[in-house]
Write a sequence for this structure.
C-alpha cells in the first residue's frame, strides 16, 4: 500500500498529460492491491468503479429522456447539475484512496433498485429509483395506481370489468393540461370515447324519435353528451379533482391545470368563411348548412377550432392567466373544470372500448349517459304553431285543421278558462287550455305538433349497432321522418 501511495503522489507531481496517461496504470495497480488484501468481492466492485470512471457511457440510473414539467424546471436543472457533479467525481476516481473507491462502488450497487436499468426500447425510457415521488414528473407514474384506494373504489363503483386495469383508469383521470405527454394523459382515450358516445346517442335518438326536427335533435345530443352533461355524470360518479397536478397526487383524483395550456379535442366539421359574422350580423344559419358544415351539435367551428388534415387531432388553446390579465373569473374556472370532467368521462368510455370491445362500451353508454331523464317537450320553441300545423296537414294529405271550443268557464270574470281542441276531420290532433281563445288555440296547435314530433315506436327500439352481434338478424331500415315543416 505504501508503494501505491508513492506512485499516486508521484502522479500528482507530473504534468496533466502525464498524469492522464498514468491514471490507468494506477487504477490497475490499485485493483491488484485490493484483490490481494480484500479478496475477489472488493476487486469486482473496484473494477466496476474503474470502468465507469474511464468510459463516458451513462449510468443505468440516468435517463436520456425525462418527463419534465414546465413548473419544475428548477428541480430538473438541479438534478442535471448533481448528475454532472457525480460524473466529474467519478472521472477523478483515480486520485482517491482505495477505501473511498470501495465505498463509492458499494453505494452505487446499493442504490440500484431492481427493475431500473438501461432501456433498449425508445418507447420506455429509463427511470430513476425515486421516480415515484420525483417532483420532475407532472403526473403520477402508472405503478402507483395499484396503491390508490380512491381509484379502486371508482373502478368498483362504475362496475367496470376486471380486464380494465387500474393503470388505464388512472390515465383517464390525467387531463392534457396536467401532463402534456400524449403517452400519459387521456387525450387519445377521450377522442375515442367522444366518437363512441356521440355515435350511440345519435343512433338511439334517431331510432326512438324518428320525427324529431334537426334543431331538437342537436339540442338533445348536447343535453345527453355535451360537456356540461358529461361533467354532471363525472360528479355523480363521485370523481374528485386535485387542487393541482403533480407526481405526489393520488392517482384516483382528477388532475387538470387552470394555468397550463389546454388541448381541445378535434371537432369534426368545416370552417365557414362567414362564421365570425353569423352572430355579429345575425345572418341566417340554415339547417341544411348546419348538417353539412358544423359539428355533432350543430355548432359552427371558428378558426381556432378547425385544423388542416396535416395537423394533429388536438390543438393547443391558450388559457393562461397571463393572457387573461393575471386573473381568472369564476365562470372561466367552471368552464375549464367542466371540460376536464367531461374529458375524463370520455376517456373512461374509450378505455372500456379498448379493453372490453363494442358491446361493453355500448352497455356503458346506455347505463351512464342514456339512462338520464330528459324531457324533450321543453326543447321545443314554436313561433307560428297554427301555420306549421296547417303545413303539416297539407304535407301528409290530412284535412285542414279546425279549432273548436270545447269548454269554457268564467268568460266575464277575472280568470276565465277556455278549452280549445284542434281537429282534422273527425280526428282530434291536440287540446289546449288558456285564459284567452287565441292563446288556447295556439297551445292546442303546439300540443298537436309535439304529439307528432315525439312519436316513438317503443322503448326497446332496435338500432343499427345491434346487427354487429353474432347471430343477429339483418337490419330492417327504420322509419325516419322528413323532419321540419317550416
Amino acid at each position: 500500500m505504501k508503494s501505491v501511495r508513492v506512485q499516486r503522489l508521484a502522479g500528482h507531481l507530473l504534468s496533466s498529460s502525464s498524469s492522464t496517461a498514468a491514471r490507468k496504470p494506477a487504477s490497475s495497480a490499485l485493483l491488484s492491491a485490493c484483490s490481494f488484501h480484500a479478496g475477489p468481492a472488493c476487486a469486482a466492485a473496484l473494477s466496476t468503479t474503474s470502468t465507469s470512471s474511464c468510459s463516458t457511457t451513462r449510468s443505468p440510473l440516468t435517463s436520456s429522456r425525462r418527463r419534465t414539467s414546465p413548473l419544475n424546471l428548477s428541480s430538473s436543472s438541479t438534478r442535471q447539475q448533481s448528475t454532472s457533479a457525480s460524473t466529474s467525481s467519478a472521472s477523478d476516481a483515480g486520485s482517491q484512496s482505495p477505501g473511498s473507491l470501495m465505498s463509492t462502488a458499494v453505494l452505487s450497487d446499493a442504490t440500484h433498485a431492481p427493475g431500473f436499468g438501461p432501456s433498449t426500447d425508445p418507447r420506455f425510457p429509463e427511470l430513476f429509483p425515486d421516480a415515484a415521488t420525483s417532483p420532475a414528473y407532472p403526473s403520477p407514474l402508472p405503478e402507483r395506481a395499484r396503491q390508490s384506494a380512491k381509484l379502486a373504489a371508482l373502478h368498483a363503483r362504475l362496475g367496470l370489468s376486471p380486464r380494465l386495469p387500474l393503470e388505464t383508469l388512472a390515465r383517464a383521470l390525467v387531463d392534457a393540461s396536467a401532463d402534456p405527454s400524449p403517452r400519459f394523459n387521456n387525450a387519445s382515450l377521450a377522442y375515442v370515447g367522444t366518437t363512441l358516445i356521440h355515435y350511440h346517442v345519435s343512433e338511439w335518438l334517431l331510432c326512438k324519435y324518428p320525427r324529431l326536427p334537426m334543431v331538437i335533435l342537436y339540442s338533445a345530443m348536447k343535453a345527453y353528451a355535451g360537456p356540461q352533461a358529461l361533467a354532471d355524470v363525472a360528479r355523480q360518479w363521485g370523481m374528485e379533482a386535485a387542487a393541482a397536478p403533480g407526481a405526489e397526487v393520488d392517482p384516483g383524483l382528477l388532475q387538470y391545470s387552470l394555468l397550463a395550456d389546454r388541448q381541445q379535442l378535434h371537432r369534426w366539421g368545416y370552417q365557414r368563411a362567414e362564421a365570425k359574422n353569423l352572430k355579429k350580423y345575425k345572418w341566417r344559419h340554415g339547417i341544411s348548412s348546419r348538417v353539412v358544415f358544423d359539428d355533432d351539435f350543430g355548432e359552427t367551428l371558428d378558426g381556432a377550432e378547425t385544423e388542416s388534415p396535416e395537423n394533429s387531432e388536438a390543438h393547443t388553446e391558450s388559457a393562461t392567466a397571463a393572457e387573461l390579465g393575471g386573473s381568472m373569473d369564476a365562470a372561466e374556472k367552471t368552464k375549464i373544470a367542466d371540460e376536464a370532467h367531461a374529458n375524463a368521462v370520455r376517456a373512461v368510455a374509450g378505455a372500456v372500448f379498448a379493453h372490453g370491445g363494442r358491446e361493453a362500451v355500448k352497455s356503458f353508454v346506455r347505463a351512464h349517459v342514456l339512462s338520464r331523464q330528459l324531457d324533450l317537450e321543453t326543447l321545443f320553441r314554436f313561433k307560428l304553431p297554427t301555420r306549421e300545423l296547417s303545413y303539416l296537414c297539407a304535407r301528409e294529405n290530412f284535412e285542414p285543421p279546425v279549432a273548436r271550443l270545447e269548454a269554457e268557464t268564467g268568460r266575464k270574470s277575472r280568470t276565465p278558462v277556455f278549452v280549445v281542441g284542434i281537429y282534422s276531420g273527425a280526428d282530434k290532433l291536440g287540446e289546449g287550455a288558456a285564459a284567452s281563445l287565441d292563446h288556447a288555440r295556439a297551445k292546442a296547435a303546439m300540443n298537436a305538433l309535439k304529439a307528432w314530433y315525439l312519436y316513438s315506436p317503443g322503448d326497446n327500439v332496435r338500432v343499427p349497432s345491434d346487427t354487429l352481434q353474432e347471430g343477429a338478424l339483418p337490419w330492417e331500415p327504420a322509419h325516419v321522418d322528413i323532419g321540419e315543416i317550416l
Summary: The beta strands are 262-265, 314-317, 402-409, 417-424, 427-434.
